[in-house]
Amino acid sequence: MPDEKEFLKQYRQDDYPRPSVTADIVAFMIRAQENDNYRLNSGTRLTLLLIRRGGHPFKDCWALPGGFLNPDETIEQCALREICEETAVKPVSLMSVGLFSEPDRDPRGWIISNAFVSVISEEKVKQQSGDDASDAQWFDIDFDRDDSGDFILTLSYRETVLRAVLAEESTSFGKTSFRIINSGGLAFDHARIIATALTALRSGAKDFEYIFDFLPETFTMTQLQNVQETIMNISVLPANFRRKVSALVEETDEFTRGAGHRPAKLYRRKNRKG
Amino acid sequence: MPDEKEFLKQYRQDDYPRPSVTADIVAFMIRAQENDNYRLNSGTRLTLLLIRRGGHPFKDCWALPGGFLNPDETIEQCALREICEETAVKPVSLMSVGLFSEPDRDPRGWIISNAFVSVISEEKVKQQSGDDASDAQWFDIDFDRDDSGDFILTLSYRETVLRAVLAEESTSFGKTSFRIINSGGLAFDHARIIATALTALRSGAKDFEYIFDFLPETFTMTQLQNVQETIMNISVLPANFRRKVSALVEETDEFTRGAGHRPAKLYRRKNRKG
DNA sequence: CAAATAGTGTCTCTAAGACAATATCAC
DNA sequence: GTGATATTGTCTTAGAGACACTATTTG
Question: What was the pLDDT predicted at A170?
C-alpha cells in the first residue's frame, strides 16, 4: 500500500476531463453627462465596459473583458490582471458574482467562467484618456422590467445599441438568476452575466456598498447621492440621504468652488474599522 | 481568412493549461438534542456533514463532501449530484459561496473548487437512517472569536474534536475572507471554506433566509425561532420574533399534542410570490 | 434680486425591542 | 394546582420618509 508521497507521484490529472476556466469582469463606471448651463448640476449615467471581439468566435460582437486563468494565480488575481491589461485602469473593488458553467455556453468547447463586478471611478478612467477609436468602450446601461415581466437590458454607445431580453428564473434559492431570451448581439452568455452582476450591484448599493468606489477620494453629498440614485434608478430626499450616510463619511475642510451656487462641503469616506 | 465554422474546427483547447474543477458542499443540519424531561423543549445544535477520506491525500482526515465536475453538467448540478451520492439525502437549498482557487490548495495539483452552502432538514436525514459506523457524520459546530480576534472553529462528533484557527482577512470588498492559521486536521483548505460558508449562512439567516429549509413542511413558531437562534448564536424575545416572521408564514389547522404543556399551532411557509 | 444648489429642523409613521399578562395542556 | 410552554397586548424608542425652511454662491 503506497504512502502519500508515493500516491502523489503516481497521480495523473489527465485521467479526468478538465474545463478551461476564465474570469469575466463586469466593470461599472458612473459618467457625468454633458451640460449646456454651467450652473446646473450634470446628470449621471451608469455605464459598463465592453470590448469588441477581434477574432472568432463572435467576431465583431461586443463582449465582457476577461481571459483565461493561469496556473500560478487565483481567479481574483486573474480578473484583476485581465481588467488592467485591457483597460490600463485598476478597479477599486472586485466582487465575485458566481461561476457560469453551462456546458454549451462557449462554442469553442468546455469553458466555464467566474464573473466579477468591478467598480471604477470616472476620475481614473479620464486619467488614462483612451482614444475614441478603441475597441473598448463604456456603454450606457438601461435595465428594467417590461410589461410582460421580462427584463430588457439596453446598452448604448453612440449609434450602437444592444438590446437583450431576459427572463427571471426561479432559482433553487436566494440569488435571482436569468435566462437569455434574446442576447441582443452580445457574445456568449454575457447578457446573462451582466444582468446578474447588475442585480448584485443594486443589491449592494442598497446599504451603501460600492457607492464610494465610483467617486474620487473626496466628494460632495450630492455626488454620493447621485451615485446611489443612478445605480438603483430611484430618487430620495437629500435630507434623509444625508442622515443615513452621515455615519459612513467624515468632513474635510474643503469646499467646491465656482459652481454658480452655494459651495458644497467635501467629504471623505470614514475608515470602516476605525 | 477562416470563417467561424472553420475556426472552431481548428480550435484546440489543449493549447492552454486547464485546472480540474470540483464542487464542495458545506451541508448544514439542525439537530434536536437528547432530553431527560419530556416536558422540556429540547435544545438544538447546528451540525455539519464531514466525510472521512479513505484514500490519499489526507487519508483518514475529515473533509467536505464533493467531487469533480463532469463535462455534461453545471457546477450546481455537480454539487447536487455529489451530495446525493454521498448521503442519499437531497438538500432543500443550495447556494454558491465562491470559487477557491489558490494554486497550491490541493497537493494533487491544480484543482480549484466552487463551494456551496446546503441546508438539510433533520427529518430527511432521519428517514435515510444511516448506520453509525459510516464514514459520513454530522459534527456539532462552534464558531466564535477568541480574545486575540482570531476565529476558532470547533467541530465535534463523539470523541472526535477538530479545532481549526482562522484569521479574518481584509478582503478587497464586501465579503469577509479567512486565512487558515491551523487547519485542525481538516483536509485541504476546508477549514477556510467552512468558515466562509458559515458566515454566509449567518448573514442569510438574519433576514430569515434558509431557516425554513431546516424544518419539515409544518412547524411551530418556537421551532422556527430555535433555528434562527441556533444559527446566529443569539436569543430574541418570542413576541418580537413572531411579529417579524408573521408575514412569511401561514397558519394550518394542526397543533402539536402530548407535550405536557400548551399545544402549539403548526405553521407552513407562505409562498413567496403569492 | 434671481437662479440654482447646499444644508437644517421637525413632524409623522412604522418597525424593533422590552416586558407584562394571559392561555392551555399533562400530570 | 404546578410546571412548562404558547400566544397576545402594549409601552418605549430608533429610524425612515415627507416636507418646510434657511444659507450661500454667481451673474
Answer: 74
CB A222, CB A264: distance < 8 Å: yes
- Residue A274 banded pLDDT, cuts 50, 70, 90: very low
Round to whole Å and give the CA distance between A192 and B191. Answer: 32
Any idea where the domains of chain A sit in the sequence? 20-206, 211-269
- Alpha carbons A143 and A198: distance in angstroms, whole number: 8
A197 Cα distance to chain centroid? 7
Asked if residues B145 and B56 have their Cβ atoms less than 8 Å apart, the reply is: no
Closest residue by Cα to residue B122 from B215, B20, B237, B14: B215
Write phi, then psi, for B15 (nearest 5 degrees).
-70, -25
In angstroms, the CA B113 to CA B59 distance is 19
pLDDT at A115 over 70: yes
A157 contacts chain B (CB < 8 A): no
Cα–Cα nearest to A123, from A13, A252, A218, A1: A218
Q: pLDDT tens digits for A15-34?
A: 789 999 999 999 999 999 88
Measured between beta carbons, which residues in chain A are less than 8 angstroms from residue B206?
none
Is residue A173 predicted with pLDDT exceeding 60?
Answer: no
Q: Please give the Cα distance from A202 to A119 (Å, whole number).
A: 12
Between the CA of residue A218 and those of A47, A121, A198, what are the distances in Å? Answer: 21, 12, 25
User: Within 13 Å of residue A43, how many CA atoms lie on the same side as its CB?
Assistant: 10
- DSSP-derived 3-state class of residue A267: strand
Cell of B22: 470540483
In chain A, the residue whose alpha carbon lies closest to the alpha carbon of B68 is: A16
Among the partner-chain residues A19, A69, A111, the one whose CB lies closest to the CB of B69 is A19
Straight-line distance from CA B199 to C1' D4, in Å? 35
CATH fold for the domain made of B211-269: Arc Repressor Mutant, subunit A (1.10.10)
**A108 pLDDT exceeds 90?**
yes
CA B8 – CA A266 distance, rounded (Å): 54
Q: Is B220 left (phi over 0), alpha (psi -120 to 50) or beta?
A: beta
Q: Could you tell me if B161 and B152 are in contact, meaning their C-beta atoms sit under 8 angstroms apart?
A: no
Between CA A194 and CA A178 the distance in angstroms is 10
Predicted confidence (pLDDT) at residue A259 exceeds the cutoff of 90: no
The cell numbers describing A66, all together, are: 476577461
- Determine the protein residue whose CA lies at the shortest distance from the C1' of D15: A244
Helices and strands: H and E segment counts in chain A: 6, 13
What residues of A are in contact with residue B174 (Cβ under 8 Å)? 93, 95, 204, 209-210
Interface of A with B in 162-191 (CB under 8 A): 172-175
CB-based contact B26:B64 (threshold 8 Å): yes
Give chain A positions within 8 Å (CB) of B173.
93-95, 209-210, 213
CATH topology of domain B20-206: Nucleoside Triphosphate Pyrophosphohydrolase (3.90.79)
Q: In the complex, which nucleotide's C1' lies nearest to the CA atom of residue A225?
A: C6
For A212-228, the pLDDT digits (tens) are 999 999 999 999 999 99
| Residue among B21, B57, B76 minimizing CB distance to A7 | B57
